[in-house]
Write a structure and sequence with these properties.
Chain lengths: ~120, ~190
């Protein structure tokens, strides 16, 4: 029985397996961060903030109920058409004499968001 | 032929080891600069942030006294596309150093019409665009564009110029309306 070069064969196996392992790691590195970055890009942060800002502006500056209703309906319509998002802005709820709660509902099929903004 | 053949296997092993080492160096050097799909999203996110900030700056009232209208609202009420073009381009493209950036844009306004065949529907009209954008707005198709938007509240009848702000609009009574300023941004 010829049992020379056993170490060389064994080392050959070790090296080839480690190369395979490195290739797997390299393969994974090409997709790292994709889901994270997509999640950040898809999240409609600015859309939600924009609706809140517009709503609070309409309540702060222009007290006319007619104007507020117009603005609310415009926002609901335009966001459905242009931003693919269902927005409902409900009538403010009175907390006490000073503060009101402004409920906003936002849903674009991926992100659902509800808030009650406390404001004078 | 030389008769000493005892070193052949060692030579082959040496060559194999050299190749393995070269391959390892190649892999190590390369992994630091792999351009992953996630990286393209990073660029898009940065462009979105720049655009959103620029629009938000324009939509910030200069003073809280008076009617509290922002420069953006005034430009749209007066249909002043040139002023918007100039200030928006400046905010987008200014950077430290001599050369400005080359961000291009195309801006539209979406609003609810109150007149004619499209009554109560949502219309989008082109507002203005940068130098190297498609002449009548929209995109050629080759741009890698991102979309940013900003809500504004405006009077739909301008009492200074006596004109309706939007094309599909009747009457001359002013009301507060919400509209959406939408901008496509890309680097050219």
């Amino acid at each position: 029985m010829n049992d020379t070069a056993q170490w060389i064969v064994l080392m050959g196996f070790v090296v080839s397996f480690s190369l395979f392992f490195l290739a797997v790691i390299l393969n994974q590195s090409t997709v790292v961060g994709q889901t994270t970055a997509e999640a950040v890009s898809e999240f409609p942060k600015e859309d939600i903030r924009g609706v809140r800002t517009a709503l609070l502006q309409s309540n702060m500056y222009w007290a006319s109920v007619n104007d507020q209703t117009n603005i609310r309906l415009d926002i609901e319509n335009i966001s459905l058409t242009r931003q693919n998002a269902v927005i409902r802005i409900y009538a403010p709820i009175s907390v006490n004499d000073t503060y009101w709660l402004y409920p906003i509902h936002y849903n674009n099929g991926v992100t659902e968001y509800n808030e009650r903004w406390k404001f004078p | 032929m030389v008769n000493a053949e005892c070193g052949q296997l060692f030579t082959i092993e040496g060559i194999a080891a050299a190749l393995i080492m070269l391959a390892t160096v190649f892999i190590v050097v390369n992994t630091t600069s792999v351009y992953t799909p996630g990286d393209t999203h990073v660029n898009d996110m940065q462009l979105e942030v720049i655009g959103t900030d620029a629009l938000k700056m324009l939509n910030t009232p200069v003073s809280m006294s008076g009617d509290g209208k922002s420069p953006l609202v005034r430009m749209i009420e007066f249909n002043d596309a040139d002023a918007f073009n100039k200030s928006f381009s400046n905010i987008l493209n200014n950077r430290t150093g001599a050369d400005p950036d080359t961000i291009q844009f195309s801006a539209d306004i979406s609003y609810k019409s109150n007149c004619g065949a499209t009554k109560n529907g949502v219309n989008t009209t082109h507002f203005t665009h940068s130098e190297r954008a498609r002449p009548k707005g929209g995109l050629f198709g080759g741009e890698h564009a991102v979309h940013v938007s900003q809500w504004i509240i405006l009077d739909d009848y301008n009492t200074t110029t006596f004109k309706n702000v939007f094309p599909e609009q009747c009457g001359s009574n002013s009301a507060k309306r919400a509209a959406l300023v939408e901008v496509y941004l890309w680097r050219d």
